[in-house]
Specification:
By secondary structure, the protein is mostly helical. It has 53 helices and no strands. Keywords: Repeat.
């Protein structure tokens, strides 16, 4: 209730009006009401989408600015009066036309037209969505006439490569520019900073900024705006403030977006003083109205959970006679709901009701707040009361309730909500349509899902491409592939574009399930689908950004085009992974007449890595083909395959070949070697390579440091002192460790009881922009995982009171887990109840820990009760949850039940991973069911998992214990055969 007391303080201050919170109506605020809203209007989808995006943007700290993007893009634009559109169109047509009898390069050579740097630039921009084709054209033009490769064309190429995260190629291109005296201009630096900023590589961004200044380029307004965006999106509030101050000191005036971005970033960091300073600058320097500035401050605090600070903003607005509008109270109510302060939010709503300035938006926020806390009865009660009063709510609220029912396996209630929407005359938006389709499919009600789609189409409401894609993916998850293909055909008939990576996802899913016949049908649709590439360019201007991708699922991104056909890839993989001798495989490959490119070789190696020996033979064979030359990328992949198969002699041989052929030995090449040696505990060799790398003058990148530190922290070959040294060196080099690395590093320190160094790491993280609760939570969770609950509790008490709730949310699951591991059930249950009191409810992690505990205590009924309660509370079981059920059943002798859970995972998802297979094999062997474990061992390679030495050992020893010596020898032979197939045999 602290925030409520603070709210009262605001309005009971002596210098204000003496008033209790519940008498807010007597304030002299000018509360403006919004015009009445019609829930039936056509832009309900827009309102819903806007609300969802707002939550996502601020929760994740990802704020994109179209104007800044456009400024960066404009820096790649090259305009000429000469009309070259026909040349550009023809070249683009050849590039996108795929492989024919003649190669793309040959067709380009045969074009009877004149290329120049302007044409090259425009062709590259037309290939924005297909970076591999752009790079292929760029490499061809370099060979044809290097003079066409100017700074402008390089800028365009860097932009395209950066958008597709191909930073290794970006680095090579930058080196080429230096080598060929193709000087970087300020546009080059801006694009590089922008692209690395988007990938959150802040260390690289800062190095580029310094490099730009050392090269004699003074940062301009666009550069500073790009820097601010990168730093704020990466939550580096302190560094962002330094750049802001530098920017202002140079008489550069930030735009509104930059100001707002800073406010949101600072609000997350809790730097109230800096926020006040920014707000003053917005009003005094940039002449932004006080109303707009304080609205932005209020919004930032509410979304970041700073309710106390938000109330201070309201107090300031009162003292400055700034009118309070309905949207301000909506922000406050929403912020309180997000912070779990429903009671406080309700009291504010009660005040607004008395002043008669409340509208449906507030009620929708409250319903959402109840649903967040899983208080479905309260949400429904409020919903029903509003309906009884004749109030009409928006589609988004109906959709949230409907989704909640579907998640809780209450299909009828969810579908009734859908029918209620139709009866009320509401026009469903794409989110609602998608939700009801997913609900139907999850209950295997395919005909109802189709009815929903057809009904919408009859009404003239065309679901978005994202809706159809979700439809297809959900059908694939329940193995209804015929229906999935029907949806693809339906999309094709409606002329809806289907991205290549959607096809790739479907094909990959079918491939795992062995549905090879269905794959060919999907490929048929892919071949005949509409042209998915937009050509919106005219002869005078170029837009690098695609026209509209706002409706695409984050997973549904534009996949880079391949410089090979799927048919060639499928044929090559089929031959390489077959059981034929290499001599027979070579004959078959010759007959296929494959069009071999480095990209094809990389993919074959990747897909056939479990058949490492044959894959490496394929690598050697293609290397001898006329007209083909291996690249650094193909060598890197071959080294990775050799290392995975523990064929280190051949891996080193490949490395020496690269050097002899004068190929670029990049940090990635050496990182692969460090990782492969380190993962099996050969850390002495990994350290030696790391030293050799620096002696060569090759600077380690963030991946190098990460691979080395993870190796040094592993159980095999652990070297803690060297790990600490490498971690410090990584920070000094300007690389920010990611969450995965930090967790592994801290757990290693806690396992060897070096808590002091772990705490030093926490302090270091705080200086790198990590919030105090997050930094502390990582260390506390590491202490919990290593069983040091006392030290974990000490660290919790070191965190300030204002950060306690946030911290508790982070460490909740880990703390419950370690208490239960220690047998302190009562302490764990008391902690769960105390967390509920502050609005933090049990997570899937908490429920899974309870399930593990009850199974260990032989209380099977209680374990299953916890599992059912978890599903009732809307927590979706994860792979870890199902694996815990399998382990629990096995330890209690219920082997059939364990198999039932395993089959359910395979049929309905989530699919078992490598750890699930390993755990189940181990449990079966311990329970005298080694023959069943042997079946799982045989199944693993067919679904893409390489059995480990431990897997083979468990089954081998288990069969021998059970007296099945012949089968044990069979397993041993399989192990030898599997190991030999992964090595290069000369």
């Amino acid at each position: 209730m602290k925030c409520l007391f603070r709210f009262r303080e605001v309005y009971t201050s002596a210098n204000l009006l003496p008033i209790h919170l519940t008498k807010l109506q007597s304030l002299s605020f000018s509360i403006k009401t919004r015009p009445s809203r019609n829930p039936n209007r056509k832009n309900t989808e827009e309102a819903h989408t806007k609300n969802a995006k707002e939550t996502k943007d601020f929760a994740q700290g990802v704020c994109e600015n179209a104007s800044v993007n456009q400024e960066v893009e404009n820096r790649t634009t090259h305009v000429s009066e000469k009309d070259v559109s026909h040349i550009v169109h023809k070249a683009t047509q050849i590039l996108r036309g795929g492989e024919s009898e003649a190669s793309i390069e040959k067709q380009l050579e045969e074009m009877s037209v004149e290329f120049d740097s302007n044409v090259v630039d425009k062709v590259l921009k037309r290939c924005f969505k297909v970076p591999d084709l752009a790079l292929r054209f760029f490499n061809w033009i370099k060979l044809k006439n290097g003079s066409f490769v100017t700074t402008v064309t390089c800028n365009t190429m860097i932009y395209i490569l950066g958008e597709s995260k191909k930073f290794e190629v970006v680095e090579e291109l930058c080196k080429e520019m230096e080598k060929n005296a193709c000087n970087k201009d300020i546009k080059t630096w801006t694009i590089l900073i922008s692209q690395y900023g988007k990938s959150n590589d802040i260390g690289k961004v800062l190095l580029l900024f310094e490099g730009m200044k050392k090269s004699g380029f003074e940062p301009d307004l666009t550069v500073y705006k790009v820097m601010l965006r990168a730093l704020c999106n990466s939550k580096k509030a302190d560094i962002a403030m330094e750049f802001f101050k530098e920017m202002v000191s140079k008489q550069m005036e930030p735009d509104k977006f930059s100001y707002k971005l800073l406010l949101h970033c600072l609000a997350r960091s809790g730097d109230t003083n800096a926020i006040r300073m920014i707000a003053d600058d917005m009003i005094k320097i940039s002449q932004i109205s006080g109303q707009e500035v304080y609205t932005c401050m209020l919004k930032s605090f509410c979304i970041s959970g700073g309710i106390t600070e938000a109330l201070e903003v309201i107090k300031d607005m009162k003292s400055k006679d700034i009118a309070m509008e309905a949207e301000h109270f909506e922000m406050l109510v929403k912020g309180m709901c997000r912070a779990g302060r429903i009671a406080d939010a309700l009291e504010i709503v009660d005040i607004l009701k008395r002043k008669d300035v409340i509208d449906n938006k507030i009620y929708e926020i409250l319903i959402n707040g109840h649903l967040r806390r899983n208080e479905i009865s309260k949400a429904l009660e409020l919903f029903d009361n509003l309906k009884d009063c004749g109030q009409m709510l928006t589609v988004s609220t109906y959709t949230e309730l409907m989704q909640h029912f579907f998640r809780n396996n209450e299909f009828k209630k969810g579908f009734d909500m859908y029918n209620t929407m139709l009866e009320a005359g509401l026009e469903l938006d794409s989110v609602a349509i998608t939700a009801v389709i997913v609900g139907c499919i999850q209950q295997n009600r395919i005909s109802e899902a189709w009815d929903v789609v057809k009904n919408m189409e009859k009404k003239g409401i065309k679901p978005t491409s994202k809706c159809y894609v979700v439809f297809v993916k959900e059908l694939c998850k329940i193995s209804r592939y015929d229906e999935a293909i029907n949806v693809l055909d339906h999309m094709k008939a409606l002329k809806i574009d289907i991205a290549d990576n959607v096809f790739n996802w479907i094909i990959s899913h079918m491939d795992r399930k062995g549905e090879f016949g269905k794959i060919q049908e999907v490929k048929r649709i892919q071949r005949t689908s509409n042209n998915k590439y937009e050509t919106t360019l005219d002869s005078s201007a170029v837009q690098l950004q695609p026209k509209d991708e706002t409706t695409l699922d984050p997973v549904v991104t534009h996949a880079p085009a391949k410089s090979f056909t799927d048919d060639h890839l499928h044929k090559a993989c089929e031959i390489v992974s077959s059981s034929m001798t290499w001599y027979s495989k070579e004959e078959s490959l010759q007959k296929c007449d494959l069009y071999i490119t480095p990209a094809l070789v990389v993919e074959v190696l990747r897909k056939c890595s479990l058949h490492g020996g044959a894959a490496l033979q394929f690598f050697s064979w293609v290397g001898k083909k006329d007209g083909y030359r291996h690249t650094a990328e193909t060598y890197n992949m071959a080294m990775k395959v050799a290392g995975k198969g523990k064929d280190f002699k051949h891996m080193r041989s490949l490395f020496n070949e690269m050097i002899r052929k004068d190929l670029l030995v990049s940090p990635d090449t050496l990182t692969i070697m460090i990782l492969q040696y380190g993962r099996i505990g050969l850390t002495e060799i990994a350290l030696k390579i790391f030293k050799e790398m620096k002696d060569r003058g090759c600077s380690p990148n963030s991946s190098t440091y990460k691979s080395l530190i993870i190796s040094l922290c592993g159980k095999k070959g652990r070297k803690v002192n060297e790990a600490i040294e490498a971690f410090m060196e990584m920070n000094q080099a300007g690389f920010i460790p990611d969450k995965e690395l930090i967790e592994i590093y801290l757990e290693c320190l806690c396992e060897v009881n070096n808590v002091l160094e772990a705490k030093n790491c926490v302090k270091n993280l705080c200086t790198h922009g990590f919030s105090t609760p997050l930094a502390y939570s990582l260390c506390i969770r590491a202490l919990c995982r290593t069983g040091n609950v006392e030290e974990a509790l000490v660290m919790i008490n070191e965190v300030s009171e204002k950060d306690q709730n946030t911290l508790n949310g982070y460490i909740y699951g880990s703390l419950i887990h370690v208490l239960l591991r220690k047998g302190r059930l009562q302490d764990a249950l008391e902690k769960i109840e105390s967390m509920k009191q502050v609005g933090i409810f049990p997570t899937v992690h908490v429920y899974t820990s309870l399930i593990v505990y009850f199974f260990r205590e032989k209380q099977i009924s209680k374990a299953l009760e916890a599992f059912e309660k978890m599903k009732q509370d809307g927590c979706e079981p994860t792979i870890v949850t199902y694996s815990s059920l399998i382990r629990g059943y096995m330890s209690n002798g219920k082997i059939n039940d364990a198999w039932n859970v395993f089959h359910k995972m395979k049929n309905e998802g989530p699919l078992p991973d490598f750890k699930t297979y390993s755990m189940f094999i181990s449990c079966l062997c311990k329970e005298g069911k080694s023959e069943e474990g042997m079946q799982l061992l045989s199944e693993m390679p067919s679904i893409g998992f390489a059995p480990s030495t431990v897997n083979f050992r468990d089954v081998f020893y288990g069969l021998n214990r059970e007296g099945k010596h012949n089968l044990a020898q069979t397993v041993l032979r399989r192990k030898w055969d599997f190991a030999s197939r992964r090595k290069f045999l000369t």
